[in-house]
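Record format v2
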Amino acid sequence: MSEEELLIQQLFDEEKLTDKQKKILFAAIESFSEKGYAATSTSEIAKKAGVAEGTIFRHYNTKKDLLVSIVAPLMTKLIAPFVVEDFNKVLDQQFDRVEDFLRATIENRRDVLKRLLPVVKIMLQEIPFHPELRHQFIDQIAKKIFERVSHLIKGYQEKGQIIEMPPETVARLAITSILGFLFTRYILFPENDWDDELETERTIQFIMHGLGKTPSRE
Amino acid sequence: MSEEELLIQQLFDEEKLTDKQKKILFAAIESFSEKGYAATSTSEIAKKAGVAEGTIFRHYNTKKDLLVSIVAPLMTKLIAPFVVEDFNKVLDQQFDRVEDFLRATIENRRDVLKRLLPVVKIMLQEIPFHPELRHQFIDQIAKKIFERVSHLIKGYQEKGQIIEMPPETVARLAITSILGFLFTRYILFPENDWDDELETERTIQFIMHGLGKTPSRE
Amino acid sequence: MSEEELLIQQLFDEEKLTDKQKKILFAAIESFSEKGYAATSTSEIAKKAGVAEGTIFRHYNTKKDLLVSIVAPLMTKLIAPFVVEDFNKVLDQQFDRVEDFLRATIENRRDVLKRLLPVVKIMLQEIPFHPELRHQFIDQIAKKIFERVSHLIKGYQEKGQIIEMPPETVARLAITSILGFLFTRYILFPENDWDDELETERTIQFIMHGLGKTPSRE
Amino acid sequence: MSEEELLIQQLFDEEKLTDKQKKILFAAIESFSEKGYAATSTSEIAKKAGVAEGTIFRHYNTKKDLLVSIVAPLMTKLIAPFVVEDFNKVLDQQFDRVEDFLRATIENRRDVLKRLLPVVKIMLQEIPFHPELRHQFIDQIAKKIFERVSHLIKGYQEKGQIIEMPPETVARLAITSILGFLFTRYILFPENDWDDELETERTIQFIMHGLGKTPSRE
DNA sequence: CATGAATGAGCTTTCATTCAT
DNA sequence: GATGAATGAAAGCTCATTCAT
């Protein structure tokens, strides 16, 4: 089992899945991610998973349930580090400079995101078409991240490291920059050669200082 | 016919569409955008368009053709201003400061994007699942925009207004920031109250100077 | 226009067909013969004929009418020599020996059959599925041929050249032998090398004397 | 279940068909034989078989597969007696005279043919339109029959019972005479009164001695 | 006369789901 | 719990036929 599969498996670990259930989940993730949820048939998933079609419906009553079973845990796991108290305390104290926080966060999440990429892709693809997913996403991810992050942002603003802007705007700008990088990197041009270290550093620099060449920076 | 429909109609204007063809296109755009391409049935499109199902296939041999007929013209129209010579000359000269160029471009494209939103949404949704669309997108949009934009970027870099970075990275950072805004604004949280002017200005400021509070800027 | 087409054209000549009608007929014959009546679409015929689909239905109200228009004249033309009085008189007198009659008839009809092969093929293929065709065939071909031929047969029987058997049996045996040859020759193994003269002669010999080696024949 | 159905069932016996599969096959045979393959719809077959339409496609992936599943076993079964060694030995020795061999063979095959008539009809109807069927027919039937029969023919030629002609020609003449009889009997004029014994005897006599009244035969 | 856009019934095939084994 | 045969609704698409131009 590859490193990536191991991580994905962790996503569902707590739920004590049987061997067959795991196979079904992996097969579904692969197919949903490659062809999209609506364009994937349950028979295809069954074949890829090596189980009977009926077995899928024994564990996940409907195809939609299967989708939700894949995407829902992602939502909680993706933001885990932001809500886990310990980690937060560390965060609050450890990084005096925003850059360092950004770097640590990107590094931390990039790794997870990269390996969970298929699941993330499914999530982003299907959110627009499934209101429950969208609400789950907003409630569990967007809001919680925002709560945590706005606290941090305010901290840095008070320290004078971040400009005065509503925290939600600050969060939006930072997050879309990071996701924009990942989208370009892994979805739009995956086959290009990428120097991940370098691009990450550039992205952080951009988030901090923008594209403009200010006299002071020279 | 609404303002939005008028603009969408321009997308397909040159091709002298009959009344029925237009109805089919609009119905398909609406459904594809709401439920996704794969989850939309041709019978549903026919009903919404008020035509017989056979009529769809008389004009677009396959369902896929219909998708391509919707997305392909968008690709050429979206970047038109970047390739139209006159516009470029204006651009090169008129805007001494990057900020002004950004503001003009965003304003110009935001309007188009907003009104073409359903079609843009379809394009972005389906690109990952249809290699031809992806290649068309890369060849017709990404490359052409980059050619035009890298020229501009180098100009501003020579004038000392933009930091030294590979033009493709500069372009990526700027474009994803803009699209990230539009995505958040129109797809993720369309029902929020937005002060478009203000957010645009903030986005521009972010692109230019980032989030960091540098001494020089005070 | 090929020799074959000329002959086929004669099939329909009396009916003063327009240019378009001819094109439709030829296209239909080609397609029906290659793919079968049911598996051929009118749009395919229209395309091959270079006319609009509506034009087909202006001349032949239904697809079935088109089939009948192709097959019906064949029925009258194929047996023409047997019913044309002049030809019959000639026949009655001219051939003292059955062999000579058979040879002349085969030669005469083989040429026609070969060139009308596509139409003949359509007729034989469709007869089992269209009762009207079958009745037309029985009434116009089978019965008329039989009337004529049974007269001849009785003549030869009286002359002691043909064994005593009911004329219909004699006719059946002779005709199926000839058609069996043509079927093997043109439909089952058309790509084999055939010495037509020789095989014709053998077929005639077979009809007359069978396969058995009788002392008297040596 | 009628006697005919029993025989048809034997055609497919080895393949351990389920009850539903049998029903589908019988329904398809009936419809294909009555209306032709292309003119028969799968929904019609499903209705006649008393199963859901989906069930047909679970067992036979395509409509064409269904056709092949009907026709292919026929090809092997029809010629079985010719390839079964025991039968051959019997044949070689038992019949001193060609007539007796012919009579035995016709009797043996006529029975089978008559009862498999619907399937045979389908085979003959569809061979011209499906190259794979045609090749199967040529490879599995024509060639194998010829191999066996040419051996027999040479034997009889050596004994001086059959005239000197290439075995393939001899085979063609004999076989088309027999099939011509069966075609006339069962397909062209099935509703006539037929004295099968008598017609068989006449056909054999024809194959052996032809229609000519030779002095020697009196 | 000729056209070809339009139709809607019907085609083959696939689908998510059920249930007896 | 697992299976996979069976289902029938619905999918994408084709068809013969009509009719306004």
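DSSP finds twelve helices and no strands in chain A.
The CA atoms of residues 127 and 135 of chain A lie 9 Å apart.
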